[in-house]
Amino acid sequence: MAWQGLLKEYKEFLPVGENTPPLITLYEGNTPLYKLEKLSEKYEINAYAKFDGLNPTGSFKDRGMVMAMAKALEDGATAVICASTGNTSASAAAFAARAGLKCIVVIPNGKIAQGKLAQAVMYGAEIYAIDGNFDDALRYVRKTAETGKVALVNSVNPYRIEGQKTAAFEVVDELGQAPDYLFIPVGNAGNITAYWKGFKEYNEKKQTGLPKMMGFEASGAAAIVHNRVFENPETVGTAIRIGNPASWQGAVNARDESQGEIDEITDEQMIEAYQWIAQNEGVFAEPASCASVAGLLKKLEEGKIEKGSTVVTVLTGNGLKDPDTAIDYSEIKPTVLPNDEELIMNKILGSVKA
Ligand code: F0G
């Protein structure tokens, strides 16, 4: 049977009751788990990438948003609000359009990728671009939501975490059991919290095991790693440009309970992993997503991953969301040619090996 969307597929694990109609969906979830062939061979491990960039709005946020939006409808909300580094706002705007709710988004001005802004615009959100960062925006929307006039759909809304935990279910369903390690980018820390919850719930019900949770922050926004708020977070991975993660404690619990680690990677390491995985495995994920792959490469180089381990990296967003970073950092530039058949053919054929 065709995929029916997360609320129907994982109903027994989600807070979906008889009063949660309609079960809205954009057919989110059911994203591919790719074997990373070259990386696996090189390091003698079984490495995979869960590509959540293939969700309907191009990021993992759709998993949590479908749940949060269904609950907002159930509670009789007429409007939803979120702060965002871009993906949450794109997802909220899409599901609000689907659900017939008004969507208000607050974003850091000039600090979200173009594709994400285009999505919020296209799905018809009301957009406030503030002269502040994500942490400021989150503070304002939380206060606004306290009035009871709008429903908050950031991951501090527990329904977001409920929806997002389904990614862990899919990983386990595909592998037959939990991997040894789960590598994941950390921004506001909702997703690492959600994955850990998902792995634990599945293990309780099906004895599928638990991975070590390996979270990675950008070094310019590494609050959890350094155990202090970053007042002015900075990173090329704008999705995780967050200095005071709301689910800080959830991330620490996931790390400690799983005997995992939360570490940082530099922007250079992030960009290197971003280009490597596109050019060697054919997977184009957005820069912040690749904190997971960069983190895996870092731990492999430190010799911390045993040979034969099964490792899943989470690729949280689609590379097409951020064309500017792709082009700005690429060493590949189009060769501009005049409209001349002979010259064009000579140039092309000269570059092809005999
Ligand atoms: N990767 C991408 C592509 C993201 O958009 C985010 C968060 C993360 C990773 C980090 O996930 O916050 O659960 O630790 N983006 C949020 C947003 C903050 O507003 O779109 P997290």
TrEMBL record:
<dbReference type="GO" id="GO:0009097">
    <property type="term" value="P:isoleucine biosynthetic process"/>
</dbReference>
<dbReference type="GO" id="GO:0030170">
    <property type="term" value="F:pyridoxal phosphate binding"/>
</dbReference>
<keyword id="KW-0456">Lyase</keyword>
<dbReference type="GO" id="GO:0006567">
    <property type="term" value="P:L-threonine catabolic process"/>
</dbReference>
<feature type="cross-link" description="Isoglutamyl lysine isopeptide (Lys-Gln) (interchain with Q-Cter in protein Pup)">
    <location>
        <position position="143"/>
    </location>
</feature>
<comment type="pathway">
    <text>Amino-acid biosynthesis; L-threonine biosynthesis; L-threonine from L-aspartate: step 5/5.</text>
</comment>
<feature type="binding site">
    <location>
        <position position="316"/>
    </location>
    <ligand>
        <name>pyridoxal 5'-phosphate</name>
    </ligand>
</feature>
<dbReference type="InterPro" id="IPR004450">
    <property type="entry name" value="Thr_synthase-like"/>
</dbReference>
<dbReference type="InterPro" id="IPR050147">
    <property type="entry name" value="Ser/Thr_Dehydratase"/>
</dbReference>
<dbReference type="InterPro" id="IPR001926">
    <property type="entry name" value="TrpB-like_PALP"/>
</dbReference>
<dbReference type="GO" id="GO:0003941">
    <property type="term" value="F:L-serine ammonia-lyase activity"/>
</dbReference>
<feature type="modified residue" description="N6-(pyridoxal phosphate)lysine">
    <location>
        <position position="61"/>
    </location>
</feature>
<dbReference type="Pfam" id="PF00291">
    <property type="entry name" value="PALP"/>
</dbReference>
<dbReference type="GO" id="GO:0009088">
    <property type="term" value="P:threonine biosynthetic process"/>
</dbReference>
<keyword id="KW-0791">Threonine biosynthesis</keyword>
<feature type="domain" description="Rhodanese">
    <location>
        <begin position="80"/>
        <end position="146"/>
    </location>
</feature>
<dbReference type="GO" id="GO:0006565">
    <property type="term" value="P:L-serine catabolic process"/>
</dbReference>
<keyword id="KW-0663">Pyridoxal phosphate</keyword>
<dbReference type="InterPro" id="IPR036052">
    <property type="entry name" value="TrpB-like_PALP_sf"/>
</dbReference>
<dbReference type="InterPro" id="IPR001763">
    <property type="entry name" value="Rhodanese-like_dom"/>
</dbReference>
<protein>
    <recommendedName>
        <fullName>Threonine synthase</fullName>
        <ecNumber>4.2.3.1</ecNumber>
    </recommendedName>
</protein>
<dbReference type="InterPro" id="IPR000634">
    <property type="entry name" value="Ser/Thr_deHydtase_PyrdxlP-BS"/>
</dbReference>
<comment type="function">
    <text>Catalyzes the gamma-elimination of phosphate from L-phosphohomoserine and the beta-addition of water to produce L-threonine.</text>
</comment>
<dbReference type="InterPro" id="IPR026260">
    <property type="entry name" value="Thr_Synthase_bac/arc"/>
</dbReference>
<dbReference type="GO" id="GO:0004794">
    <property type="term" value="F:threonine deaminase activity"/>
</dbReference>
<dbReference type="GO" id="GO:0004795">
    <property type="term" value="F:threonine synthase activity"/>
</dbReference>
<comment type="similarity">
    <text>Belongs to the threonine synthase family.</text>
</comment>
<feature type="binding site">
    <location>
        <position position="87"/>
    </location>
    <ligand>
        <name>pyridoxal 5'-phosphate</name>
    </ligand>
</feature>
<keyword id="KW-0028">Amino-acid biosynthesis</keyword>
<feature type="binding site">
    <location>
        <begin position="187"/>
        <end position="191"/>
    </location>
    <ligand>
        <name>pyridoxal 5'-phosphate</name>
    </ligand>
</feature>
